[in-house]
Amino acid sequence: MQSKVILIVDDEDDIRNMIKNYLEMHNYKVLTAKNSEEAFNIALTSVVDLILLDIMMPGIDGLNFCRNVRDKLNCPIIFLSAKTLEEDIIKALSIGGDDYITKPFSLKELMARIESHLRREERLKLKNINVIRSGNILLDVFSKEVFCRGHKVVLTKKEYEIVEFLLLHKNIIYSREKLFENIWGLDSDSNLEAVTEVIKNIRKKFKEYDNENTYIQTVYGLGYKWELRHE
């Protein structure tokens, strides 16, 4: 089986080299960049299966790199950061990050997270459903695009994944904990505000093209579900 390619983006040489050596010992192909500019060039000219991304870097920081690269890449992005405030974690997860690990971290834990996300990506590729419709919403699973009344709705990776997940499980109520577990791929009761923030953004984007219908319903005290309702 061909080795998965991981891109490490961090301005600290010691961290880049430490992770690179560890991953190569476990048969991964590793590319490295010390800033966002180098990372853009690599990401747009190479096949990358997963990105490990620092936040605090000179020039374009990791958050802005994530925002910009999400239009072009759909691979998992794991943030590695010394920033531990909940608001920083929520922001990183809601703009398209798949995971967030605070520094210092265990290399074994990092490996477990990487393998978990790569397995999840493989499962997603095995889906056979191509197009899902609900009201004025059309979702193309193959191209990872969502349309509303014929207009393409520009979604972040996590926004898309929540729409796809809820559409595939219509009328089933999911708590924030279960959505976090299924979308971010982790068993965690922390950073659940990221779910709320992402759903708020999805609703706002749908309303730009469809003021007559609501698609993601809040079931108070329980969670969220996809159910088409006319207003």
Protein topology:
Layout: E1 5-9, H1 13-25, E2 29-33, H2 36-45, E3 50-54, H3 62-69, E4 77-81, H4 86-94, E5 99-102, H5 107-125, E6 131-134, E7 137-140, E8 145-148, E9 151-153, H6 157-168, H7 176-184, H8 193-207, E10 213-219, E11 223-230
Helix pairs in contact: 4-8, 6-7, 6-8
Describe the structure in your own words.
Helix 6 (157-168) packs across helix 7. With 231 residues, this protein is of the alpha/beta class. The chain has two domains: 5-125, Rossmann fold (3-Layer(aba) Sandwich); 131-230, Orthogonal Bundle (Arc Repressor Mutant, subunit A). The model has no long low-confidence stretch (mean pLDDT 88). The chain has helices spanning 13-25, 36-45, 62-69, 86-94, 107-125, 157-168, 176-184, 193-207, and strands at residues 5-9, 29-33, 50-54, 77-81, 99-102, 131-134, 137-140, 145-148, 151-153, 213-219, 223-230. A hairpin with a 2-residue loop joins strand 6 (131-134) and strand 7. The strands form three sheets. It has a five-stranded parallel beta sheet with strand order 2-1-3-4-5, sandwiched between helices. A four-stranded antiparallel beta sheet has the order 6-7-8-9, with helices on one face. Strands 10-11 form a two-stranded antiparallel ribbon. The chain starts with a strand and ends with a strand. It has eight helices and eleven strands. Helix content is 41%, strand content 23%.
